[in-house]
Amino acid sequence: xxxxxxxxxxxxxxxxxxxxxxxxxxxxxxxxxxxxxxxxxxxxxxxxxxxxxxxxxxxxxxxxxxxxxxxxxxxxxxxxxxxxxxxxxxxxxxxxxxxxxxxxxxxxxxxx
Amino acid sequence: xxxxxxxxxxxxxxxxxxxxxxxxxxxxxxxxxxxxxxxxxxxxxxxxxxxxxxxxxxxxxxxxxxxxxxxxxxxxxxxxxxxxxxxxxxxxxxxxxxxxxxxxxxxxxxxxxxx
Lengths: 112, 115
Description:
The complex is a heterodimer of chains A (112) and B (115). Chain A has 112 residues and is mostly beta strands. Chain A is 0% helix and 57% strand. Chain A contains no helices and 11 strands. Chain A has strands at residues 5-7, 10-14, 19-24, 31-37, 44-49, 55-58, 61-65, 71-76, 85-94, 97-102, 106-111. In chain A, the strands form 2 sheets. In chain A, strands 2, 4, 5, 9, 10 and 11 form a 6-stranded mixed sheet that branches. Chain A starts with a strand and ends with a strand. Chain B is mainly β. Chain B has no helices and 11 strands. Chain B has strands spanning 5-7, 10-13, 19-24, 31-37, 44-50, 53-57, 65-68, 75-79, 88-95, 105-106, 110-114. In chain B, strands 2, 4, 5, 6, 9, 10 and 11 form a 7-stranded mixed sheet that branches. In chain B, a hairpin with a 6-residue loop joins β7 and β8. At the A-B interface, β4, β5, β9 and β10 of A face β4, β5, β9 and β10 of B.
Protein backbone atom coordinates (compact mmCIF):
# COMPACT_ATOMS: atom_id res chain seq x y z
CA UNK A 1 0.00 0.00 0.00
CA UNK A 2 1.38 3.36 -1.03
CA UNK A 3 1.22 6.18 1.51
CA UNK A 4 1.88 9.89 1.20
CA UNK A 5 2.80 11.84 4.32
CA UNK A 6 2.18 15.57 4.21
CA UNK A 7 3.66 18.07 6.62
CA UNK A 8 2.84 20.25 8.31
CA UNK A 9 -0.82 19.33 8.80
CA UNK A 10 -1.73 22.89 9.81
CA UNK A 11 0.04 26.16 9.04
CA UNK A 12 -0.96 29.67 10.09
CA UNK A 13 1.21 32.51 8.84
CA UNK A 14 1.13 36.27 8.34
CA UNK A 15 0.58 37.80 4.93
CA UNK A 16 3.90 38.27 3.12
CA UNK A 17 5.68 35.32 4.71
CA UNK A 18 7.10 32.38 2.79
CA UNK A 19 6.22 28.75 3.45
CA UNK A 20 6.99 25.23 2.29
CA UNK A 21 4.74 22.17 2.39
CA UNK A 22 6.25 18.69 2.11
CA UNK A 23 4.90 15.46 0.67
CA UNK A 24 6.92 12.30 1.34
CA UNK A 25 6.63 8.60 0.58
CA UNK A 26 8.72 5.47 0.58
CA UNK A 27 7.12 4.53 -2.75
CA UNK A 28 7.94 5.70 -6.25
CA UNK A 29 5.23 7.50 -8.19
CA UNK A 30 4.96 7.90 -11.96
CA UNK A 31 3.51 11.36 -11.42
CA UNK A 32 2.52 13.60 -8.58
CA UNK A 33 -0.22 16.18 -8.54
CA UNK A 34 -0.93 19.09 -6.22
CA UNK A 35 -4.50 20.21 -5.63
CA UNK A 36 -6.10 22.99 -3.60
CA UNK A 37 -9.48 22.43 -1.98
CA UNK A 38 -11.92 24.94 -0.52
CA UNK A 39 -14.45 23.89 2.17
CA UNK A 40 -17.39 22.03 0.65
CA UNK A 41 -15.82 21.90 -2.81
CA UNK A 42 -13.82 19.39 -4.83
CA UNK A 43 -10.03 19.57 -5.27
CA UNK A 44 -8.79 21.92 -8.00
CA UNK A 45 -5.63 20.91 -9.84
CA UNK A 46 -2.63 23.23 -9.44
CA UNK A 47 0.16 21.28 -11.15
CA UNK A 48 1.32 17.84 -12.29
CA UNK A 49 4.99 16.79 -12.14
CA UNK A 50 6.24 13.64 -13.86
CA UNK A 51 10.04 13.84 -14.13
CA UNK A 52 12.42 13.33 -11.20
CA UNK A 53 13.99 16.66 -10.24
CA UNK A 54 11.36 18.63 -12.13
CA UNK A 55 10.60 22.15 -10.92
CA UNK A 56 7.46 24.01 -11.98
CA UNK A 57 6.46 27.55 -11.15
CA UNK A 58 2.94 28.94 -11.04
CA UNK A 59 3.20 32.64 -10.17
CA UNK A 60 4.25 32.67 -6.49
CA UNK A 61 4.03 28.87 -6.16
CA UNK A 62 7.04 26.63 -6.86
CA UNK A 63 6.63 22.86 -7.06
CA UNK A 64 9.47 20.35 -7.01
CA UNK A 65 9.47 16.60 -7.62
CA UNK A 66 12.25 14.68 -5.90
CA UNK A 67 14.99 13.05 -7.97
CA UNK A 68 13.79 9.58 -6.94
CA UNK A 69 10.13 10.50 -7.55
CA UNK A 70 9.22 9.66 -3.95
CA UNK A 71 8.69 13.16 -2.58
CA UNK A 72 7.62 16.64 -3.54
CA UNK A 73 7.44 20.12 -2.09
CA UNK A 74 5.32 23.21 -2.60
CA UNK A 75 6.85 26.58 -1.79
CA UNK A 76 4.76 29.75 -1.63
CA UNK A 77 6.48 33.11 -1.73
CA UNK A 78 4.92 36.17 -0.11
CA UNK A 79 1.72 34.40 0.90
CA UNK A 80 -1.57 36.26 0.51
CA UNK A 81 -4.94 35.72 2.20
CA UNK A 82 -6.26 34.31 -1.08
CA UNK A 83 -3.81 31.41 -0.70
CA UNK A 84 -5.79 30.14 2.28
CA UNK A 85 -7.08 26.61 1.73
CA UNK A 86 -6.33 22.90 1.96
CA UNK A 87 -3.36 21.79 -0.14
CA UNK A 88 -3.33 18.13 -1.16
CA UNK A 89 -0.62 16.12 -2.84
CA UNK A 90 -1.61 13.00 -4.78
CA UNK A 91 0.55 10.37 -6.42
CA UNK A 92 -0.19 7.99 -9.27
CA UNK A 93 1.60 4.66 -9.11
CA UNK A 94 1.47 4.02 -12.85
CA UNK A 95 2.04 0.55 -14.32
CA UNK A 96 -1.61 0.31 -15.31
CA UNK A 97 -3.00 1.66 -12.02
CA UNK A 98 -4.58 5.07 -12.42
CA UNK A 99 -5.92 5.64 -8.93
CA UNK A 100 -4.52 8.58 -6.99
CA UNK A 101 -3.15 8.15 -3.48
CA UNK A 102 -3.68 11.36 -1.51
CA UNK A 103 -1.94 12.79 1.51
CA UNK A 104 -4.06 14.09 4.39
CA UNK A 105 -3.48 17.65 3.29
CA UNK A 106 -2.01 20.84 4.72
CA UNK A 107 -4.52 23.39 5.95
CA UNK A 108 -3.04 26.83 5.31
CA UNK A 109 -4.36 30.04 6.86
CA UNK A 110 -2.84 33.33 5.76
CA UNK A 111 -3.67 36.14 8.16
CA UNK A 112 -3.95 39.67 6.72
CA UNK B 1 -16.46 22.34 -21.39
CA UNK B 2 -18.59 22.50 -18.26
CA UNK B 3 -16.30 20.44 -16.05
CA UNK B 4 -17.26 17.42 -13.93
CA UNK B 5 -20.81 17.69 -12.63
CA UNK B 6 -22.18 15.87 -9.58
CA UNK B 7 -25.74 15.60 -8.37
CA UNK B 8 -27.02 16.07 -5.75
CA UNK B 9 -24.59 18.38 -3.93
CA UNK B 10 -26.01 17.38 -0.55
CA UNK B 11 -27.97 14.34 0.62
CA UNK B 12 -29.36 13.68 4.06
CA UNK B 13 -30.76 10.22 4.68
CA UNK B 14 -31.73 7.94 7.51
CA UNK B 15 -29.71 4.88 8.41
CA UNK B 16 -30.81 1.87 6.39
CA UNK B 17 -32.02 3.83 3.36
CA UNK B 18 -30.52 3.49 -0.13
CA UNK B 19 -28.98 6.49 -1.89
CA UNK B 20 -27.75 7.06 -5.44
CA UNK B 21 -25.38 9.72 -6.70
CA UNK B 22 -24.75 10.77 -10.29
CA UNK B 23 -21.57 12.01 -11.98
CA UNK B 24 -21.28 13.53 -15.44
CA UNK B 25 -17.63 13.66 -16.55
CA UNK B 26 -15.98 16.13 -18.91
CA UNK B 27 -17.44 15.16 -22.27
CA UNK B 28 -14.34 13.83 -24.04
CA UNK B 29 -12.96 11.98 -21.00
CA UNK B 30 -13.17 8.20 -21.10
CA UNK B 31 -11.91 7.51 -17.55
CA UNK B 32 -14.10 8.14 -14.53
CA UNK B 33 -13.20 7.75 -10.86
CA UNK B 34 -15.02 7.75 -7.53
CA UNK B 35 -13.34 8.81 -4.29
CA UNK B 36 -14.57 9.27 -0.73
CA UNK B 37 -13.33 11.99 1.63
CA UNK B 38 -14.02 12.12 5.35
CA UNK B 39 -13.38 15.10 7.60
CA UNK B 40 -9.68 15.84 8.07
CA UNK B 41 -8.56 13.29 5.50
CA UNK B 42 -7.53 13.34 1.87
CA UNK B 43 -9.74 11.64 -0.72
CA UNK B 44 -9.58 7.81 -0.81
CA UNK B 45 -9.99 5.89 -4.04
CA UNK B 46 -13.12 3.75 -4.43
CA UNK B 47 -13.32 2.65 -8.07
CA UNK B 48 -12.51 3.58 -11.65
CA UNK B 49 -14.02 3.03 -15.10
CA UNK B 50 -12.51 3.17 -18.53
CA UNK B 51 -15.45 3.67 -20.86
CA UNK B 52 -18.12 1.32 -19.49
CA UNK B 53 -15.71 -1.19 -17.94
CA UNK B 54 -15.06 -1.07 -14.19
CA UNK B 55 -11.32 -1.80 -14.03
CA UNK B 56 -10.27 -1.14 -10.42
CA UNK B 57 -12.09 -1.46 -7.12
CA UNK B 58 -10.79 -0.58 -3.68
CA UNK B 59 -11.24 -2.78 -0.64
CA UNK B 60 -13.18 0.22 0.74
CA UNK B 61 -15.94 -0.60 -1.73
CA UNK B 62 -18.01 -3.00 0.36
CA UNK B 63 -20.80 -5.10 -1.11
CA UNK B 64 -23.27 -2.36 -0.13
CA UNK B 65 -21.66 -0.09 -2.71
CA UNK B 66 -22.19 -0.46 -6.45
CA UNK B 67 -21.06 1.77 -9.27
CA UNK B 68 -22.12 1.71 -12.89
CA UNK B 69 -21.27 3.49 -16.09
CA UNK B 70 -23.62 1.80 -18.54
CA UNK B 71 -22.93 3.79 -21.71
CA UNK B 72 -19.46 5.01 -20.93
CA UNK B 73 -20.71 8.51 -20.21
CA UNK B 74 -22.30 9.37 -16.83
CA UNK B 75 -21.85 7.14 -13.79
CA UNK B 76 -23.93 6.35 -10.72
CA UNK B 77 -22.78 5.29 -7.27
CA UNK B 78 -25.38 3.54 -5.12
CA UNK B 79 -25.06 2.82 -1.42
CA UNK B 80 -27.53 0.32 -0.03
CA UNK B 81 -28.57 0.09 3.63
CA UNK B 82 -26.62 3.22 4.56
CA UNK B 83 -24.73 3.33 7.84
CA UNK B 84 -23.57 6.35 9.84
CA UNK B 85 -20.00 5.52 8.84
CA UNK B 86 -20.93 6.19 5.21
CA UNK B 87 -21.23 9.91 5.99
CA UNK B 88 -18.60 11.59 3.83
CA UNK B 89 -18.00 13.67 0.71
CA UNK B 90 -18.20 11.51 -2.40
CA UNK B 91 -16.04 12.91 -5.19
CA UNK B 92 -16.06 12.06 -8.87
CA UNK B 93 -13.16 12.77 -11.23
CA UNK B 94 -12.51 12.20 -14.92
CA UNK B 95 -9.48 12.03 -17.18
CA UNK B 96 -8.56 11.34 -20.78
CA UNK B 97 -6.61 8.17 -21.53
CA UNK B 98 -3.38 8.54 -23.47
CA UNK B 99 -0.51 10.98 -23.21
CA UNK B 100 2.18 11.20 -20.54
CA UNK B 101 -0.07 12.60 -17.86
CA UNK B 102 -3.32 11.15 -16.58
CA UNK B 103 -4.67 14.40 -15.16
CA UNK B 104 -7.79 13.93 -13.08
CA UNK B 105 -10.32 16.75 -12.79
CA UNK B 106 -12.71 16.67 -9.87
CA UNK B 107 -16.32 17.62 -9.43
CA UNK B 108 -17.65 19.60 -6.47
CA UNK B 109 -18.72 16.42 -4.70
CA UNK B 110 -21.85 15.07 -3.04
CA UNK B 111 -21.90 15.44 0.73
CA UNK B 112 -23.78 12.55 2.36
CA UNK B 113 -25.06 12.74 5.92
CA UNK B 114 -26.53 9.56 7.40
CA UNK B 115 -28.66 10.19 10.50
